[in-house]
Write a structure and sequence with these properties.
The protein is α/β, with parallel strands linked by helices and 316 residues long. Helices cover 38% and strands 18% of the residues. It has twelve helices and twelve strands. Bound molecules: adenosine-2'-5'-diphosphate. Adenosine-2'-5'-diphosphate binds next to helix 9. This is NADP-dependent oxidoreductase domain-containing protein.
């Protein structure tokens, strides 16, 4: 297997492997299934893992990391890059540091490598049913939340901070008030949602983009098979002796974007790492650039079609 390249993140000492294993599934996979998948991923060569409080996978990831260290699959905690995310119900005054500590407790870790604001929205109560009552959903007080995120860095709870699902406008606002600029914006990005404007904006501002749903989150509540079932990508894959998934992941990588892709299947997680010793031709890139653009993931699906939520979805 070709080595997994790493990326430099602004203000973060440790480099991040460009492909990470996602751990979101819905309904959430049970602890043992997730733990076994993470251990399998570590054996396959993954060193970057992506979780979130809202995924319910922090505990399983933490147990797998502890087990991997016990088994000697990795030498030390610092060999791994672990990202988790602040859920909307903790995005209020005085809540950010305790939320980060709660995630660390779930993970049984002393620090994470990256802590992201999961969505640019606050919920004043923790509600897991959809729709969330509209009166509980508020815009973020960016200054309050980012100061809390910065405090997490200053306390050593995380090495870096960033955001997820942020538009150019929100990033602009955040940059104008941040003492520690966001290192990452994690967004939906794939051949069917190419995010050209956001990519250009983030490049100019030195914010690295990580793609979630790079395969269109096939077989999940929030995804579909528009990527893995697409003929243009399948034809490119056949001609190159690759799989459609590999073509989609390689395309994401060639855009200078890192990847959080989920597979709990041993063969597929290995297959997804085999994208670093070949490249797409200009002709293939041209065909992919012409694919129709359709957004898959919406906040409205999780919180309900409230005006603020629809506005956030429209900006992404
Ligand atoms: P599984 O876990 O059974 O492999 P995304 O990365 O866009 O979130 O997509 C994740 C979905 O795609 C999961 O349902 C995962 O299923 C599936 N998947 C991951 N890798 C591959 C692959 N190489 N080929 C086909 N399906 C894949």
């Amino acid at each position: 297997m070709a080595a997994i390249p790493s990326v430099n993140l602004a203000g973060v000492e440790k480099e991040m492997p460009v492909i990470g294993m996602g751990t979101a599934s819905f309904p959430a996979a049970d602890l043992e299934t997730t733990k076994a998948a993470v251990l399998e991923a570590i054996k396959a060569g993954y060193r970057h893992f992506d979780t979130a409080f809202a995924y319910g996978s922090e505990k399983a990831l933490g147990e797998a990391v502890a087990e991997a260290l016990r088994l000697g699959l990795v030498e030390s905690r610092s060999d791994l890059f672990i990202t988790t995310k602040l859920w909307a119900s903790f995005a209020g005054p005085g809540q950010i540091v305790p939320a980060c500590k709660m995630s660390l407790q779930n993970l049984k870790l002393e620090y994470v490598d990256m802590y992201l604001i999961h969505w640019p929205v606050r919920m004043t109560e923790m509600v897991w049913k959809t729709p969330v009552p509209e009166e509980l959903v508020q815009a973020l007080d960016m200054k309050v939340v980012w100061e809390g995120m910065e405090e997490c860095v200053n306390l050593g709870l995380t090495k870096g901070i960033g955001v997820s699902n942020f538009s150019c406008n929100l990033l602009d606002h955040l940059i104008s008030i941040a003492k520690i600029p966001p290192a990452i914006n994690q967004v939906e990005l794939n051949p069917f949602w190419q995010q050209k404007k956001l990519r250009e904006f983030c490049k100019e501002k030195g914010i690295h983009i990580t793609a979630y749903s790079p395969l269109g989150a096939n077989n999940t509540k929030w995804g579909d098979n528009r990527i893995l079932g697409n003929d243009v990508l399948a034809d490119i894959a056949t001609a190159m002796g690759k799989t459609t998934a590999q073509v989609a992941l390689r395309w994401v990588y060639e855009q200078g974007v890192s990847i959080a892709s989920k597979s709990f299947n041993k063969e597929r997680m290995r297959q997804n790492l085999e994208i670093f010793d070949w490249c797409l031709s200009d002709e293939d890139l041209d065909k992919i650039s012409q694919l129709p653009q359709t957004k898959g993931v919406t906040l409205a699906a999780a919180l309900g079609p409230h005006p603020l939520v629809l506005e956030i979805d429209a900006s992404l």
